[in-house]
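Form 7-S
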Amino acid sequence: MTYTPGMESLAPPPRTIAPLLAVQVMLGGAGAQIGWLLLGFGSIFFWGFAWNADLSGWRFREDTVARTTGVTLECRQTGLSQGRSSQRQWVYRNLYHYAVEGRQFQGASFALERCVFGPVTVEYLRLDPAISRIAGMRRRPLGPRDTMPALVPAIGLGLVIAGLVKGRWRLRLLREGLPASGRLVEKVVTSSRTNGRADYRMAFEFTAQNGLTGRASLRTNHPEQLESGSETLVLYDPADLSRGLLFRSLPGNVVIDQQGQPARSGSRAFLFLPLATILGNGWYVYRHWIA
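Output:
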């Protein structure tokens, strides 16, 4: 990371933050980028499996359903299947209609390797007759177990949200934080590794303008970058000295320009994963529900 040392070179708050720098601080953190990767990759399995899973089975209890006779309209293969190679079973969509107290309804039920024709037994909710299924079938192509792939994008979404919360905190201190000189007081190797290198937890102490001592910490697999000088720039909130922000820990390349304002430097690679994830999911929604 390119860095201009010296707290005297930083403009007093509030500082001007360019929009692209703000996006870099919000989205460029390692945790947030991993979250976007998991969210984007996991979305493939979410839309393909979890979104097509039937979770309505608990609603169809003996005390909540009534039955009537319906008539099938058509049966077709959905393109979804379960099993592998010679044991693969295709999911079929059975379209049907039925009547309840003179009102006509239409529904679709799904089953493995099963097409029905003619009269069928239809189960419907007493309180909402429009919600129904053919007895022994599902309302969606896949079963509840197929929601498991949703764990991947769920974890990714959690990391993205946590990254945005942390990014907002970083952005606030970058704009309004007071500067101080941080001194390395702790360096501890952790049990984790990143890209084959050991991760270190490093802590820096600083003295605030009121004379009290605060602390800023981070985890890094390049501790030598923070040991090159005797002191490093820290931004802190005077109302909370326990969570200072090391200027060098900001995502991407952040420098101080000639006016003392924070500025970004380097590529825009941090935009790739968020944009790919948003555009990919947006395209799927548009293709299947809007177009």
